[in-house]
User: Fold this.
Amino acid sequence: MLQLDQFKRAELEKELAVERLRQQTENAKLDMESLNKQAVEQQVRPPAWVPGINSRIGRDVYHYTGQDIVIHESIDSYGAVMWPAALALCSFLDNNRKKVNLQEKVVLELGAGTGLVTIVASLLGASVTATDLPDVLGNLRANVMRNTRERCRYTPQVEALSWGHDLETTYPTSVYRYDYVLAADVVYHHDFLDELLVTMKHFCKPGTTVIWANKVRFETDLTFTENFKNAFHTSLLAEDGEMKIFMATCRE
Assistant:
């Protein structure tokens, strides 16, 4: 697991706790709607990318592509919990199927975490490979298999991938070609941002589109964004406050 310094670790833990509390609050509002519709309508509306979530102990149920998606989280790693950019990216893909048509496309997800983005992309018709560090693969694989079995044309794959490490040997570009590379909330306070960019560049070849969703938290996010823009031809697909979704293609 990536080692965070104590301060940044506390900041991320605080944000995660706030995010979970916000989701629970939104659920409570929905439950109250039939009893007190006027009061609920006076509440501040949540961001457009926030889905309906049915929370239970140890799991959350999300609703995308007309399907209920059951996600179990693990507290053992930051990569095994749900982060807001994954929700933003799933909502974008679900609501923009003509703009980003995943039918019959070959897709790679970097830092797949809980697997929600991979699941949604698979339900939208893509052949997806979900990748992450070895310590989160067990929970990732369980979530992906639970929610895609007998629902998808293509069975998603789950593989280990360490950013920037021996990429041409483990994922030679002559063999591994992707239509889309997806990534959500992979930029935060860690020491592997250069390796992440190298990995994105390795997989982003002519004909490949990178879609990266990120919530800006630290100065390092802004630095990485500038490096990302310099490395690729980029455009901003969607923006909601500090939440941004970029599309990128390689500089040939």
Observations:
- The longest helix spans residues 6-32.
